[in-house]
Amino acid sequence: MSFPNFVEKYGSLSATGLARETTFGSPIAASTFLPMASNTMEEDPGWFAPHLMQGVRDYQIYNLYGEAKYQGAIAGPLFPSNAIQLLSAAVGSDAQAGYGVVGTYSTPTSTTSNGATVAGATTITLTSASGFVTGQQITIDTGQSTEVRLISNVVSTTITVADALYYPHASGATVTTATTTTLNGALTAPTTTVVVTSATGIVTGSFIQIDVNTVSGAKTSEVRKVTNVVTNTLTIDTAITYNHANGAQVILVTTPYMHTFAQANTLPSLTVEKNLGGFQSLQFAGCRVGKFDLKAPVGNTAVEMTTDFSGQSVATLSTPTAVSVVNELPYVFAEANLNFFGSLRTDVTNVNAVIDNGLKETYTYSNQHGPSFITPLIVHGSGSVDVVFDSLNDTTYGDFNRLANGTLGQLQFSLIHPANGGTIAFFYPQVAINKFANDLKQEEVVMSALTWEATRPLTGAALFTVQAVVFNSTYIPY
Amino acid sequence: MRLRYTGAIPVMFTTAVGEVEPDAEFDVPDDEADAYTGRPDIEQVPDAPAADMQGAAPPKRRSAKADGLTSDTTTTAE
Fold this sequence. Notes:
The complex is a heterodimer of chains A (478) and B (78). With 478 residues, chain A is mainly β. Helices cover 3% and strands 43% of the residues of chain A. Chain A has helices at 85-90, 399-405; strands spanning 15-20, 32-33, 38-39, 42-44, 47-48, 64-65, 69-77, 102-105, 109-112, 123-125, 137-140, 147-155, 158-161, 174-178, 181-182, 193-195, 207-210, 222-230, 233-236, 249-261, 270-276, 280-295, 304-311, 313-317, 324-325, 336-340, 343-345, 348-356, 359-362, 373-376, 380-388, 408-416, 423-437, 447-454, 467-472. Chain A has a 24-stranded antiparallel sheet that branches. In chain A, strands 9-14-11-12-13-10 form a 6-stranded antiparallel sheet, with no helix packed on it. In chain A, β12 and β13 (158-161) form a beta hairpin. With 78 residues, chain B is mainly beta. Chain B contains 1 helix and 6 strands. In chain B, the strands form 2 sheets. A 3-stranded antiparallel sheet of chain B has the order 4-1-5, with no helix packed on it. A two-stranded antiparallel ribbon of chain B has the order 2-3. Chain B is globular and about 35 Å long. The chains are: A mainly beta (478), B mainly beta (78). Chains A and B meet through β24 and β25 of A and β2, α1 and β6 of B.
């Protein structure tokens, strides 16, 4: 028998590409790739044969096709930039009104807080308010607790912010602000021409942040690269998305840039390209994220995510899209931080966080077998935390008491590369511990296994179940 | 074919192209260009105008995406 006359394909040459769609179900060629461990996206054409009686014993006769499904899961490590579009598809779009991209000040005015603040606070007292002016942006704290707000008033060393703070901050937290110039004339989107009152310090190649966010959405910040400067008229690389009022702040900024993926009722859809051995691709269009499952165990393993997709259609690509990746590393457990019920926990051996969007596929008379709608009906946050057991009732480590007393608290989980190499943070403003177990083993340290459920607060500043924030080198919204 | 990368941050192609910076131009063999031209962050660099065509802008090639050519076939089982 002769060998088959085709060349075998290498699994190692496979890849998973993603692109955010502008119209649900209209495929876009992949522009970001997730170095992946597995991709189980497949087509189920909905084949069936009705079991009918017509004078023969044959069980199945008629080949019919009903509801086609395009589903699967993609698993791989979590990177600062590669495939971050997954977060927008799992939680909500980047740069929604009031949650625009924010840069890091090129020339900050820095001070510290003089007194702790609680979640929900609208004022913060500084050791010095020199350089802090109403209308400017204030950045409070660092790392996973970084918050950016609009200064609405300054009285002596007390700053009032336009929107309440999400997180508590310790006394002595780093507080910064900056201003470079202001808009000289309102901007109406879309435009690439920006007129400022003074372009001093702004040169071709500079990055500027236009405006300061307010949660109401009245103001939304945007970051752009300056491609030309003529006196006080700047040209930027990409047209602005939002309108900006005359006099809005313009700030010279640099990397890292802060992206906020705010919870939303409508989730973006992605095109998922499953590259088979570098030979051909299956291009799944109209893919929405059902479950986003994050695991960060200790050990010689990267922090991993598994994303369940449901799509609308599939096409074959005889030429797979060229694969590209950002030169960066996945996260590992030593870069993980858990702030649980107000305490930074160093006893954690694993965090698991699941976001379930409750996808519902709806089929209609649309001359196609795929679903017409793939709807994220709910958002459900839950997960587990494994810790080394310390105490049933300690103020910091007494998780059993939190379970028994029905205590509610915040959960912040972040992954931070050193030297501004990228940060990803998940924030659940209200969680409850619903299970606490100690599985005792003779030759093991006593561990506590907790499970938690997220709920939407009824009051306060953070009226959502989950929000994700990413700091990386990309200044354009995902 | 000469192409330009229009993305916001440097990326590393796993092909011979290697790492490219934003706005960088690079060449790929014509028979491999389809793998790149569909990407929303890649555009074709127009050929330089010929001497007798000076002043006339060369036609800009539409991307495969704009032409609806990002896929060869679409499953529409009837």
